[in-house]
Specification:
Length: 371
Amino acid sequence: MHAEASVENEPPANDLAAWLRLQHLPGVGPVAARALLARFGLPGQIFAASFDALREVVSTSLARTITEPPRRVANSQLELTLQWLQRPGNAVLTLADAAYPPLLLEIADPPLLLYVRGRAELLSRPGIAIIGSRNASAQGMQNAAAFAESLSRAGLTIISGLALGIDTQAHEGGLRGPGSTVAVIGTGADLVYPKRNLDLAQRIAEQGCVVSEYALGLPAMPANFPRRNRLISGLARGVLVIEAAALSGSLITARLAGEQGRDVYALPGSIHSTLAKGCHALIKQGAKLVESVEDVLQELQWQGAFPALAAGSASEPVDEVLAALGHDPHGADTLAERSGLAVGAVMGQLLALEMAGLVERLPGGLFQRCK
């Protein structure tokens, strides 16, 4: 998000103090907080309520906690957050903001606060989550980048978790299209985990959006990431699993997606690959088997187009891939060598060309111009 846009999503300091105080109250999770907000309105009104009125909504001990003076942690977080908001592109969205992502309002426990770096409007645009193994195969990472780029070119925002492997390639592919990408992270928005994705996180903050529900300064902790996953699926219209082992954390996200009423898609793989077992299990449980980008777009009933393939507007990378392809069958690796493009970028263009009816896929991972 541009610096001038961040002011619109910056609550007044006194309002923000009340939201932060509510967020840091011991024993108050998102569900209890929503019950209090539904009964009293904004956080300031919760803290102005009488003990007896609070007792009608929450337990005696929790009502007593609410009526106590603000805790030091809330005061220190206010100071830290106000400083963070001075930086261009940073914003805080509260549950009461008009800009709060509407799809998150549908889940059982939406966060009270969202800390945003970059284009907050992407959180409310149609998107699809692409997730999978951190220890993905080379083919899996190529598929992730290619699917993400093609879906982004179709106008869908790519949502993932900034992890290594599939997540990283999903973000990279998303950045190459107009749909861009959203990284939902499991630390404070002022931190990056893993450190290897520091450059990627910065590019996403500049061209897409980084978002966290966690307080600034909160480091990576194991419990953060399964909880973070509900936001990845909650922000999306569907979840595409590229590669996943039988006990992969991606299956948690897929389960959450099903509980949230989101579609789940999975790429099949070799019966001998441990990284395909999770996807095969999802397909057995009712996930939609996906072999092409078109499968996803048809399931979503998405009417967006690939801008690079609109009539008379073929992009330079598309021209390079077609020129490298010639009139004989070739694989993506060969086309990457001939065109000078990355393999992931070549796969993205090939998938788009396939959807446009200009290229056909042959056995053995080969592609050929349509006659």
